[in-house]
Design goal:
The complex is a heterodimer of chains A (141) and B (147). By secondary structure, chain A is mostly helical. Helix content of chain A is 70%, strand content 0%. Chain A is built from seven helices and no strands. In chain A, helix 1 packs across helix 7, helix 2 crosses helix 3 and helix 6 packs antiparallel against helix 7. Chain B is an all-alpha fold and 147 residues long. Chain B contains eight helices and no strands. Chain B is globular. Classes of the chains: A mainly alpha (141), B mainly alpha (147). Chains A and B meet through helix 2, helix 6 and helix 7 of A and helix 2, helix 7 and helix 8 of B.
């Protein structure tokens, strides 16, 4: 359950990302593939060395989904249901990979916001993104 | 055994030279205790950990963070033998402190996030990868003597 303050931190950080989902998404994927190369197995459609355009396109898609989650923080299960189906039936990303994405997401936020990336924001986003990961993997079995 | 290339060692050293050990150590530990509150279980003797500001300002947290990061710095000088360097500390964390090694990984992740806030664009994906490799290796070295 997200507290009032946590929701505020989530919305506040999202304000900085909104409109730049492609850029943030591309950086997220670039960091993910560089730091955790094994995650690339789940993105074979991007090829061995995804180019900038591919990262921007796919990154945008991922961050737009996060944006939907921000909008419907109170109802993640319902609003992410189609994505949960996709992950359970088609993508089947091993659940251990979600913390890796979350860590890279935090590094992206930290490097952009620098001193403004307070511990309260980090805690709220860690909790929020973990909640999303739980929903996305809930139908696995 | 983990092998670090000379480029990786140079990258680590170049960033480390600019790190304020006290600030980064204290903040990393504080963030760990706040973002993952169950980690506070090891620090009953640290006094007031009841709020985020209490934790961020707690002098024992800062001192311990500095101690941990100094140990980190020592390990950086011996990147080719982390297991040997951390052997005694590993036994201590197992036999006396009873710390789940998962906490070493979590703290490593916190250090990376704090480094990112300090170094921003300079903390490139490649730099992040090198440091993640280092903190993973350190966590494994600290867990190595567990039994």
């Amino acid at each position: 359950m997200l507290s009032v303050q946590e929701r505020a931190h989530i919305a506040q950080v999202w304000d900085l990302i909104a409109g730049q989902e492609a850029l943030f998404g591309a950086e997220l994927l670039r960091r993910l593939f560089t730091v955790y190369p094994s995650t690339k197995v789940y993105f074979r459609h991007l090829g061995d060395h995804p180019d900038e355009v591919q990262l921007l396109n796919h990154g945008q898609r991922m961050l737009q989904a996060v944006g939907v989650a921000v909008q419907y923080m109170d109802n993640l299960r319902a609003v992410l249901s189609p994505l949960a189906d996709l992950h359970a039936q088609v993508l089947r990303v091993d659940p251990t990979n979600f913390p890796l994405v979350i860590q890279c997401f935090q590094v992206v936020l930290a490097s952009h916001l620098q001193g403004e990336f307070t511990v309260e924001m980090q805690a709220a986003w860690d909790k929020f993104l973990t909640g999303i990961a739980v929903v996305l993997t809930e139908k696995y079995r | 055994m983990v092998h670090f290339t000379s480029e990786e060692k140079a990258a680590v050293a170049s960033l480390w030279a600019k790190v304020n050990v006290e600030a980064v150590g204290g903040e990393s530990l504080a963030r760990l205790l706040i973002v993952y509150p169950w980690t506070q279980r090891f620090f009953d003797s640290f006094g007031n950990l009841h709020s985020e500001s209490a934790i961020m300002g707690n002098p024992k947290v800062k001192a311990h963070g500095k101690k941990v990061l100094n140990s980190f710095g020592n390990a950086i000088k011996h990147m080719d033998d982390l297991k040997g360097t951390f052997a005694d500390l590993s036994e201590l964390h197992c036999d006396k402190l009873h710390v789940d090694p998962e906490n070493f990984r979590l703290l490593g992740n916190m250090i990376l996030i704090v480094l990112a806030t300090h170094f921003s664009k300079e903390f490139t994906p490649q730099m992040q990868a090198t440091w993640q490799k280092l903190t993973n290796a350190m966590a494994n070295a600290l867990a190595h003597k567990y039994h």
